[in-house]
Amino acid sequence: MSARDSNAAKYHLDDSLNTWSTRWVLDANMLLCTGCTRGQYARDADQPFPHGDGCRLASELTLYPWRELAELLRAVTQVSA
Question: Structure pTM?
Answer without folding.
Answer: 0.84
